[in-house]
Amino acid sequence: MLTIHADSRDRALAVEGDLIAAVGPPAALIAAHPGARVRRWPGILTPGLVNQYGDELLEAAYHPDPREAGELGTAPLTGEAFAALAPDEARQGASARRGLQRMLAHGTVAVACGELRVRAVRDALRRSGLDVLGRAGRPDGMPSLDPYASGAPVVFAPPREPGSAARFAVFDVPDEAALAAAGAGSCVATVVAGRLVHRRR
């Protein structure tokens, strides 16, 4: 079924399968596709964010399970804390899956990383549907699930157009300046491969 995603700035994307079928004002897309499902979102449609710290957040960090919060807290464990935990491959894979879900909750649609060494982490990333980009060396800034908190320039995925992959994110802010101030935690929806993979409750 074709789905139209519309934002508060009178912009919309029509999604069919895993591709963008059309781009334009909601009224025009709804008129052209009268049988489509329509999702109206608060805030702005964007192409979605690129998280540049795939290696650091997926292989060199541990994302605690909610059941471990009492012992480990909720923030990713890195550095000495990660080394002391010494998770095995299965535990790293589970951590990566949680980390990827948290990236999606921050409007991430692509991850930049080098050569991931842990097979379970590679598998988790492949199954997530996120676009995987190469990178040359470690980027500046501090690894963060919220690219706006990293201190490095924020990178968006390429603009969506008809025929491009249906990957995008919606943030509950009035414009890009407000998004920079609010951060990626303002994400209300993330779509990857045409599927709504995150929706803020």
Structure description:
The structure is a single chain. By secondary structure, this protein is α/β, with parallel strands linked by helices. It is elongated. 28% of the residues lie in helices and 26% in strands. The strands form three sheets. Strands 3-2-1-4 form a four-stranded mixed beta sheet. A four-stranded antiparallel beta sheet has the order 5-10-11-12, with no helix packed on it. The protein contains seven helices and twelve strands. Helix 5 runs parallel beside helix 6. The chain folds into two domains: 85 residues, Urease, subunit C, domain 1; 101 residues, no CATH class.
Computed over alpha carbons, the radius of gyration is: 18 Å
Order of helices and strands: EEEHEEEHHHHEHEEEHEE
How far do the termini sit from each other? Answer: 23 Å
SSE class: alpha/beta
Silhouette:
elongated
Q: What's the domain count? A: 2
Low-confidence stretches: none
Give the tally of β-strands: 12
